[in-house]
Amino acid sequence: MKSLSIRVDGREIKIPDSKVRLDKLAEMLKDDYQGHICMAKIKNKYHDLNYVIHTDEDVHLVDTTSEDGRRLYFRVLSFLLVVACRDVFDNCKVFIKHSIAGGLYCTLRMPKDLTDGDVEVLKAKMQEYIDKDYKITCHYMPNDQAIDKFEEVKRFDKSNLLKYRDDDLTKVYECNGYFDYFYGHMFPSTSYIKDFDLVRMGDGLVIQGPDKGIRGKMSKFKALPKLSDIYRESEQWSRTLGIETVVDLNEIIENKEYGEMIRTVEALHEKKIAEIADMIVQRNSKLILIAAPSSSGKTSFAHRLSTQLRVNGLTPLPISLDDYFVDREHTPKDENGEYDFESIDAIDIDQFNKDLNDLLNGKEIVKIKFDFMTGSRVYTDKKLKLEENHPIILEGIHGLNPNLTKAISDDLKFKIYLSVITQINLDDHNRIPTTDFRLIRRMVRDHQFRNSSAERTLEKWASVRRGEERNIFPYQEEADVMFNSASVYELSVLKPRTIKLLRQVDEDSNHYLDALRLRKFLQYFNQIDDTGDIGPTSIIREFIGGSRIVD
User: How many other C-beta atoms lie within 10 A of the C-beta of residue 218?
Assistant: First the structure.
């Protein structure tokens, strides 16, 4: 009998058979991985654990410590929650909303209010499915048949979405007699879920999984009231616009009604920024700190906020945190021995606080600049002095870290956190990750203004995300106010630019699967080619070009 020689993540594995299923291989090697093994990459293509290997192959096993592994794990958890709600409650609709506190926030629409007891019953039902190991079957259907199937059962959120698919075949998943469409791979059966929890939060609940994807280590729920509030505000904006799913957005675009939508979105942004400026004036704040993850539109926001402050009679003095980098030889290094410019220890905090205090006390300081070519500080001939009653405005990744401005009284600070929170979903059960939204923004901007390819942006993204997890997200609840810089129409504008860039990623690239995933995701959006209604100060202009406030 022919045996197989399989190279798994650099390790030679001999299989005394002519074939092996990936789930068996995963079971053999599970102790070598920190997370739950979810699928595998073979010849630069993802395969679920049902896949059978018949030839010698190079295999990369994907577990929950990776972004793709976590997506699959939570996709299955979402499916189990939907099935449980069907079996426990009458007339219940589930909406998978957004990520929060390491989990997924969901709401239930049903005749009664959700209680803690209801959450426990749902959790027990999901555990029952796991214990019984129900099979999760993937049915490959012609797309028109899938549409008909969902229309028959009046699941119009699914059937209407599938009308925008470019692919001829659609994967429809079945579990315990329930059919659904989910965007991506699944486990072969329910027993692959080992670590999960349900926690009540507000009017909904949060699905939780393994902490950082590590097997056997459950994440602990941490309430994030300010972030939750901005999510609720964003959802209210969507209801105001009458756009809760991609299908709603597409219909507006098809009916050529997007001009009014764009103008309304921009007006909502301007109103919110004006309200923030009024809060700063009312508090008589002297130091405005703006922090945000990558591609959140910090620069455009800071300019628009400055304009609104000038309306109130204030002229903020901008200070760049980049000017306070320590000299290159003192810059800390990361785990790979590379300079870690995103570490707060890369900032001369003592000098920064001294200059801030001097300015706030009415003293004049010498403006310094950091020369990135030489990696050293330069003292300029320019002097800075803060006009009486005018604030300092600072944008940077460490803006909300208390250590950055440790010598400044908290009473003088006003802290703002920006994010890019998606206001719509693909359908009731398929959400749009905020991370993907920012990645698409950055990809377009990097190409437009930095002559960088999509592959280069994808290559750097993991490092960017690690820096955000260390330096930004832990401090987001420190903010006095949060602002969502996303526009509900934005992905339709970014789509043609992004697709063009993603198609340039070669099939043999390490980042091809990410490029393919984003291309398939964007297929659901009708594109907007006419950008005439997008004003020159719009945040999206920072990424697509045409901004009058960002160089």
Answer: 15
**Max Cα distance, the chain (Å):** 87
**Residue reference for tokens 């400044």:** 408
Q: 512-544: b or e for each residue (b if 16 or more CB lie within 10 Å)?
A: bbbbbbbbebbebbbbbeeeebbbebbbbbbbb
Give the ranges where 346-480 is alpha helix by DSSP (H).
349-360, 434-450, 454-471
DSSP 8-state class, residue 101: T
13-72: pLDDT as tens digits: 999 999 999 999 999 999 999 999 999 999 999 999 999 999 999 999 999 999 999 999
Instruction: Using alpha carbons, select from 112, 67, 140 the residue that is nearest to residue 469.
Output: 67
- DSSP string covering 239-278: HHHT--BHHHHHHHHHTT-HHHHHHHHHHHHHHHHHHHHH
Task: Work out the angle between the directed axes of helices 434-450 and 490-502 (0-180°, nearest 10).
Answer: 60
What is the per-residue pLDDT for 1? 56
Q: What is the CA radius of gyration of the chain?
A: 25
The pair of structure tokens assigned to 90 is: 């009458």
Percent of the chain scored above 70 by pLDDT?
Answer: 100
CA distance 91 to 78: 18
If one counts every other C-beta atom within 10 angstroms of the C-beta of residue 347, the result is: 22
Please tell me the distance from the alpha carbon of residue 242 to that of residue 323, in angstroms, as a whole number: 44
DSSP-based three-state secondary structure for 291: strand
Which residue, among 247, 176, 257, 302, has the nearest Cα to 427 in the 3D structure?
247
What distance in Å separates the CA atoms of residue 94 and residue 110, rounded to the nearest whole number?
9
- Over residues 461-474, the pLDDT tens digits come to 998 998 899 999 99
CA distances to 133, 199, 299 from 204, in Å: 27, 9, 34
